[in-house]
Prior knowledge:
The protein is built from 15 helices and no strands. By secondary structure, the protein is an all-alpha fold. The protein has one domain (6-300): Orthogonal Bundle (Farnesyl Diphosphate Synthase), CATH 1.10.600. α2 (18-43) runs antiparallel to α3.
Amino acid sequence: MKTDSPRAWWLASRPKTLTGAAAPVLLALALAWKDAPTYRDMTGGAVHFEWIPALLCLLFALMMQVDANFINDYFDCVNGVDGEERLGPRRACAQGWVTLPAMQRAIAFTTVASLVLALPTVLWGGWELVFVGLLCALFAFLYTTSLSRRGLGDVLVLVFFGIVPVCVTYYVQFHCVPTSVWVLSVAMGLVTDNLLIVNNYRDRETDAQVGKRTLVVAIGARASEWLYLLTGFVGVALCQWQWTEGRTWGALLPVLYLIPHCLVWHRMVRIHQGRELNKVLGMTSLNILLFALLAAVGTLL
């Protein structure tokens, strides 16, 4: 492949991971759309669902994910994590598809672009969103350079792929976050964490060799398999909070997610190790989007 070609950059952006970034924002927008009439009634018609900040939140999430992927690609190459024995998809810098100086420039661009996309949302959500944007950018670096090596990656996924995108996207619309949104944000974060669990499950042996102590390395393969299964069930269980809001379908539809979740879990356990787990990674990504869509559609019904 030609160095720094469009295809190389496309692969470096890891498009399959973008569903994990888009899913929580889409769920939050469905919740906001459903709740908009209630806020209009409360304020005498002064509140409406705003499409521009909704789009900006989605674009920010996608750009921030690309930024995080570039950062991960660069630092894993520099630190020698992506060696010949790597089981996961090949990485751009390690393969020589993208030069390190070019990736440095790309990281600078995507970081700035993400913050530029986030800045206009202050017109709707307030200046506190500047702090949120800077925090997202900071932890995109800290994840790869420090925290993922200390078993804290799963916590970051819960926060930045669940709580932050769902609650902040909703907050931009109405300047408040009700309990039901908090609960669903945790559910979204737990389900999304399965993407990291299966990724680290696949890489557990090579991670241990380079001193990368992920949660999977810490608790072992067998416990990680059960953790993968459990997070899906807990995520669906949290959706049952929708009963308290009178949203029957919002509680029932996410239960359907458990069917593909269990099937993918069974495949993961059966494969156990090796490059074939990359297929499980792809199916988990699709399941995350399915969960968000089921929860969103159930909310809207």
